[in-house]
């Protein structure tokens, strides 16, 4: 019996040691992962909104997760390009650049509680604006003051530029009397306060704007609404170890759906009334590649060329580049 008891004690000690080792992060996992956030509102607000979910991610991975949020699209793109970001929440155009040039891959796409597949770009004016239709806008080139997003902003620049201006042979930067470039929140404020005549925005950001600035939101109305724009995505570095990438994707796409779903769902709502994330691959970015393609092709059609052969060569190059890009994106779809 004593011998059996001794064996049991040794076995128990070994079991506890193995269990303790298994619960510890593997060597090197004390190095933090960095989550980059495209700001919704201000950078500090975005960091605070994402913190509960990212704290949970760190516990799940048994590895620190820190976050950075910058005020510009160029800033987050630069951070990704310099490999200062391992995971990121990005709009479609930023994600397209990250996938094609910055060694990232798409693992998830935002979903919302209302079941919407995306959002809409809009042009905003004040309620008392003389602009009632798009024809009113087009009738006075060089007259109106314009607020738009950065060149990498889908709803703040690319979609309005593609659907409203390029097809008419116009460039918004030269069509308007002056152009103010800022984030969605500040552009909405500029329109509401009469600092500009018209500004770009989107339906998702306007919901949050109305919560934070109800008085200013009441002064605004839509002049135009785009076709549907797919939601933002989460990307991870493709050079992270495959098991780590898989665990990150599993956490993100199941967050809010498990036994602790009520608490996790409340954390998601802090971000932007998000209901969760659906598993997707790089092919989710094809609509954004199509937006870029349409814009480039329309610009080529309306540009001045030495001869028709030069124009055709440019159009052929745009077509071929787009075909290759779409094939590249579709090659990395979710199985």
Write up what this structure looks like.
It is a single chain. With 335 residues, the protein is of the alpha/beta class. It has helices spanning 2-23, 43-61, 73-81, 92-101, 134-138, 154-165, 172-175, 184-192, 203-212, 214-217, 242-254, 261-272, 286-302, 308-330; strands at residues 33-37, 65-69, 87-90, 104-112, 118-126, 145-148, 178-181, 198-202, 220-230, 233-237, 274-279.
Write the layout of secondary structure elements.
Blueprint: H1 2-23, E1 33-37, H2 43-61, E2 65-69, H3 73-81, E3 87-90, H4 92-101, E4 104-112, E5 118-126, H5 134-138, E6 145-148, H6 154-165, H7 172-175, E7 178-181, H8 184-192, E8 198-202, H9 203-212, H10 214-217, E9 220-230, E10 233-237, H11 242-254, H12 261-272, E11 274-279, H13 286-302, H14 308-330
Parallel strand pairs: 1-2, 1-3, 6-7, 6-8
Antiparallel strand pairs: 3-10, 4-10, 4-11, 5-8, 5-9
Helix pairs in contact: 2-12, 3-4, 6-13, 13-14
The proportion of residues in beta strands is: 15-25%
SSE ordering? HEHEHEHEEHEHHEHEHHEEHHEHH
Q: How many strand segments? A: 11
Average pLDDT, rounded to a whole number, is: 88
Shape annotation? globular
Give the low-confidence spans: 1-28
How many helices in DSSP terms? 14
* Strand adjacency order, main sheet: 2-1-3-10-4-11
Structural class: alpha/beta
User: What does the oligomeric state look like here?
Assistant: single chain
């Amino acid at each position: 019996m004593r011998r059996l008891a001794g064996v049991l004690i040794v076995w128990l000690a070994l079991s506890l040691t193995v269990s303790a080792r298994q619960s510890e992060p593997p060597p090197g996992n004390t190095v933090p992962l960095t989550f980059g956030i495209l700001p919704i509102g201000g950078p500090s607000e975005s960091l605070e909104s994402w913190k509960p979910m990212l704290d949970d991610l760190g516990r799940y991975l048994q590895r620190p997760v820190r976050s950075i949020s910058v005020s510009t699209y160029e800033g987050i793109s630069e951070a990704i390009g310099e490999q200062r970001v391992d995971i990121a929440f990005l709009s479609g155009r930023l994600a397209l650049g990250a996938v094609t040039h910055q060694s990232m891959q798409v693992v998830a796409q935002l979903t919302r509680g209302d079941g919407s597949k995306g959002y809409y770009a809009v042009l905003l004016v004040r309620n008392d604006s003389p602009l009632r239709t798009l024809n009113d806008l087009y009738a006075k080139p060089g007259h109106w003051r314009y607020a738009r997003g950065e060149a990498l902003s889908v709803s703040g620049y690319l979609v309005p530029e593609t659907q409203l201006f390029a097809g008419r042979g116009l460039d918004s930067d030269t069509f308007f009397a002056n152009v103010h470039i800022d984030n969605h929140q500040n552009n909405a404020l500029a329109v509401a306060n009469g600092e500009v005549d018209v500004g770009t925005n989107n339906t998702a950001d306007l919901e949050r704007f109305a919560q934070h600035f109800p008085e200013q939101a009441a002064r605004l109305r839509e002049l135009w609404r785009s076709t549907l724009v797919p939601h933002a995505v989460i990307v991870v570095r493709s050079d992270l170890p495959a098991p780590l990438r898989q665990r990150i994707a599993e956490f993100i796409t199941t967050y809010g759906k498990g036994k602790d779903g009520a608490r996790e769902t409340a954390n998601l709502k802090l971000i932007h009334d998000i209901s969760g994330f659906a598993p997707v691959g790089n092919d989710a970015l094809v609509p954004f590649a199509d937006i870029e393609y349409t814009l480039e092709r329309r610009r080529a059609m309306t540009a001045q060329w030495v001869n028709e052969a030069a124009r055709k060569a440019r159009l052929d190059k745009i077509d071929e580049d787009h075909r290759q890009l779409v094939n590249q994106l579709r090659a990395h779809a979710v199985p």
